[in-house]
Amino acid sequence: MKPAADRREARSFVLYVEGARDREILECWARRIDPALPRCIVRNTVILGGRRPARAILDFEKRGGPGAGFSGLIVLDRDDRPGPVPATDAAAKGAGAARIPGPDEQPHRAALDAGLEVFVWSLRHIESYLLVPDAIRRMLGLARDDGRIERLLQGASPGVGMPCEPGVGGTGRMPASLHAKRMLGPGGALSRALGVELRPGEIARAMKPEEFHADVHRLFDRIGALSGLARGGPEVVIRSAGPVARKTDS
Fold first, then answer.
1. 168: domain range?
2. Which pLDDT tens digit goes with each residue over 93-104?
3. Cβ–Cβ contacts within 10 Å for residue 91, how many?
4. I need a labelling partner for 156 at 20 to 30 A (CA). Which of 7, 35, 61, 212 fits?
5. What backbone torsions phi and psi does residue 210 show, to the nearest 5 degrees?
6. Quick check: 223 and 180 in contact, CB under 8 A?
7. Residues 60 and 184 in one domain
8. Is 8 a domain residue?
9. Residues 131, 94 within the same domain
10. Beta bridge partners of residue 118, listed in sequence order
11. Does this model's pTM top 0.85?
């Protein structure tokens, strides 16, 4: 029997991302997490055309914001900004959350005041979370013992051991300053070393949930909560051990 389609729909939720590649990566990851999330990503994402939280605030206010029943989340790269940066800030005013310093501080506070949540990757770019050697090898059909990717990543971040140590509960050891966009981009170090152009969306599609960095799981937890699509677990069906005896009148 064909299983029923998942018809959960996101409520009035808006997801703001910097670019089309961000949306593609998130959609690919979402397919590994919950069947309702990819549709939410496709339908509810607004592309800002760069790191422009002010544009997200303006759009959210035009929609009516929380007063009109909307919830929203801005997802930003950390880029090369110094100082403490929150991996996520669930509108935690006064909750002791780390703040974005310097030029980011004012728009970040303005987003919270507008009723938006702000999620900032703890690593430099969203592409940083794609530097998973096993996933890249699967995508390219390379042997599991092909160590070129690890050697290149270790060379790019000497002294920190294996640069990417993903996992559901782990934080990984990826250097926050590693420039993954350059490494994965056309003519980047990884593409040159492997002799093939690497496409971030294809790497994301090849990743397994257990290879996701903890930041990825935190982001999708917030997307699930704000959209009303709480992340679903495996369905458990309990069946009777045997036929139920019918009571008969004597």
1. 126-206
2. 433 333 333 445
3. 14
4. 212
5. -70, -10
6. no
7. no
8. no
9. no
10. 74, 89
11. no
